[in-house]
From TrEMBL:
Pfam families: CTE_SPB4 (PF13959), DEAD (PF00270), Helicase_C (PF00271). RNA helicase. Residues 1-66 are annotated as: Disordered. Its EC number is 3.6.4.13. It comes from Lepeophtheirus salmonis. Residues 31-40, 52-66 have a biased composition (Polar residues). SMART domains: DEXDc (SM00487), DUF4217 (SM01178), HELICc (SM00490). A motif (Q motif) lies at residues 93-121. Residues 11-30 have a biased composition (Basic and acidic residues). The Q motif is unique to and characteristic of the DEAD box family of RNA helicases and controls ATP binding and hydrolysis. The keyword Iron-sulfur does not apply. PANTHER family: RNA HELICASE. The keyword Metal-binding does not apply. The lineage of its organism: Eukaryota, Metazoa, Ecdysozoa, Arthropoda, Crustacea. This is ATP-dependent RNA helicase.
């Protein structure tokens, strides 16, 4: 059972949060859960753990507003007079001016799409002319239609007319399951103009048997993730690649980031080996950022390509490609980029307050929150679902999305979040996710992108914020950083990706807990933090989830690549304060065994080294055992080549 506690926010908004109906008071001289608790009487207290037989196990309750590091001066942020690279979003031309079939244009009109975007106007003529194309454009600029429209126009013009059993003519490879589903959905809508052309989709998480059945039935356009496609190339005989006219790699930079470089090369080689000599194949690469990996991929897959870059003064200019981001990478013009520097202890209460602020009263919003790990997503989703209300009788709807969820659940969450309009949500819709939602996904009318944990690269930053302010709509982003992480803000601005506006912790708290006195503000914020901590203490399963989330964050932070450790230094973390940000009262050593000695990273490396040595020993022993066994079965009558008679598994 839970009860509802109430406080009054800005403009008289009533903010509710759930608390247990019956709470066992801690064994201390003062009731820290009391509404009168302030910073003066909870600067730091230790209470005995409830675990039997653990007399030395203490829970630490530290004050939110004491012992925090100083926030460095950031006056020089947001003051640059240099203009940010911009892309003109919409073109002055019309679809019929590019030679697109009237039936396709009529279908677009029925979907409310009347004018092409700039990237579509620049890309469509080049694809229709038979060119290989490398397209670089900001997120949310309409890159999917930039290749889908000319592709469909060209397929319908083939004579004799193609239909389901004509074979596979177009292959679109995308990095994630969600993007595969979204892209397939676009093709399903577009082929209404020509019902004889059949699209299909393959992705992980679905039964291979049902996918094989779809392939046998016949497809003309196939959207797939690289791993699943390669699996079918090797194992499914009915997947015929000999007629591929169009090969598209969408979000190509993300594919390389996810380690699909080898798979992509294998796919290209498989198509080249199986394609007919009479067919001239077109290849299209699309990306929001251009890296060294993209250049290498373009050299392998493209022949005499045209380059489309809307941020360039010349739409056909050859683009300079760097090891990280291209200098003139653009972000949506209607996107307001905000940052907030939050000491570790205040992170949980600040995020909670921000959600309550934006989802309270008339300010009902659709919010996407990025977290570093899957365990963090699971934990914060459960914690917020049990603790945060906006107004009486109306829940904030919390959803979660990460790569370890069941595919059916992932698809449902993705579709539900897309289809629910923020204008009709009774209180607010919040999706907590990992970077699985950062690339290519079209999530309509997202009001706020919150990066609770900073990305490890400016490229990832661009992709995350690209989930809002899409196709000319307005949007906002908020980046949480620790005082030790402010260097990342300068990194983003130096690459001309943002002109930041600062939001302060006090400003967020005042929106939810308005007060004329600083002491009253701190008291109200402390009360909410303590109620959440009490909820965690009383729920052993929730506490276990919090501990796992804490450990996953520490491991994630410690494993950052060397190139960014000057921005995200593990040694700068105060592990006790980080534990507070998860609502945990146990000391770090009680949660993970991680102490302050600084030797944890060395021990981790030593464990990895020892594990590697053990694996090598096992492999060597296994090989020796197989050799010994083979020697035992050999006879003077044996040829020694018996195994060669074994046939490889046949394709089905």
């Amino acid at each position: 059972m839970t009860t509802m506690d109430e406080t009054t926010g800005e403009d008289g908004i009533r903010i509710h949060f759930r608390t247990p109906e019956k709470i066992t008071k801690p064994k201390s001289s003062e009731d820290i859960s009391s509404p009168s608790a302030t910073e003066s009487n909870i600067k730091e207290k230790s209470i005995p753990s409830k675990k039997p037989g653990s007399s030395n196990n203490q829970e630490v309750i530290s004050g939110l507003f004491t012992g925090n590091p100083n926030i460095p001066s950031l006056d020089n942020l947001g003051n640059s007079k240099d203009s940010l690279p911009q892309e003109s979003l919409f073109s002055q031309s019309q679809f019929d001016g590019h030679g697109i079939h009237p039936y396709i244009i009529k279908n677009l009109d029925s979907m409310g799409i009347s004018r092409p975007t700039a990237v579509q106007s620049a890309t469509i003529p080049r694809i229709l002319a038979g060119k290989d194309v490398l397209v670089k454009s900001q997120t949310g600029s309409g890159k999917t239609l930039a290749y889908a429209l000319p592709l469909l126009h060209s397929l319908q013009a083939i004579t004799p007319q193609i239909h389901r059993d004509s074979g596979l003519y177009a292959l679109i490879v995308v990095p994630t399951r969600e993007l595969a589903l979204q892209t397939h959905e676009w093709f399903v809508k577009l082929v209404r103009s020509f019902a004889r052309i059949v699209p299909g989709v393959l992705h992980g998480g679905e039964k291979r048997k049902s996918e094989k059945a779809r392939l046998r039935k016949g497809l003309n356009i196939l959207v797939s993730t690289p791993g699943r496609l390669l699996d079918h190339i090797h194992k499914t005989k009915t997947l015929d690649l000999s007629k591929i006219h169009y090969l598209v790699f969408d979000e190509a930079d993300r594919m390389l980031d996810l380690g699909y470089e080898r798979d992509v090369n294998d796919i290209i080689n498989a198509i080249s080996e199986n394609s007919s000599e009479e067919i001239k194949r077109q290849t299209i690469l699309l990306s929001a950022t251009l890296t060294q990996g993209i250049r290498q991929l373009s050299e392998v897959s493209l022949k005499h390509p045209d380059y489309v870059d809307i941020t360039s003064t010349d739409g056909n200019s050859v683009m300079a490609i760097s090891d990280d981001l291209q200098v003139d990478t653009a972000v949506p013009e209607n996107l307001q980029q905000t940052f907030i520097v939050v000491p570790a202890k205040l992170r949980l209460i600040t995020l909670s307050s921000f959600i309550l602020w934006k989802c309270g009263g008339k300010s009902m919003k659709k919010i996407l929150i990025f977290l570093a790990t899957q365990d963090m997503v699971d934990y914060h989703h459960t914690l917020f679902e049990q603790s945060l209300y906006s107004e009486e009788g109306k829940n904030i709807k919390f959803m979660k999305l990460h790569g370890n969820m069941d595919q059916g659940e992932r698809t449902k969450v993705f579709n539900d979040f897309r289809e629910i309009d923020s204008g009709v949500i009774s209180s607010g819709l919040v999706l907590l996710c990992t970077d699985v939602a950062a690339r290519g996904l079209d999530l309509p009318k997202v009001d706020w992108i919150v990066q609770y944990n900073p990305p490890i690269s400016t490229a990832d930053y661009v992709h995350r914020i690209g989930r809002t302010a899409r196709i000319g709509l307005k949007g906002s982003s908020l980046l949480f950083v620790l005082p030790s992480e402010t260097g990342f803000l300068h990194e983003v601005e130096n690459q001309k990706l943002a002109r930041f506006v600062e939001l302060t912790v006090d400003r967020v708290l005042e929106k939810v807990f308005p007060s004329d006195k600083r002491r009253s503000l701190e008291q109200a914020a402390t009360n909410l933090q303590l109620k959440m901590e009490t909820l965690i203490v009383e729920d052993s399963q929730l506490k276990e989830m919090g501990s796992q989330a804490y450990v996953s964050f520490i491991r994630s932070y410690a494993s950052y690549p060397k190139e960014v450790r000057h921005l995200f230094c593990f040694k700068d973390l105060h592990l006790g304060h980080i534990a507070k940000s998860f609502g945990l009262r146990d000391a770090p050593t009680k949660i993970t065994g991680i102490g302050k000695s600084g030797n944890w990273l060395k021990k981790q490396e030593l464990r990895k080294k020892n594990a590697f040595i053990k694996r090598e020993d096992r492999v060597v022993k296994s090989q020796r055992k197989r050799i010994d066994q083979r020697a035992l079965i050999m006879s003077e009558y044996s040829s020694g080549f018996d195994d060669m008679d074994e046939k490889p598994p046949s394709k089905k």
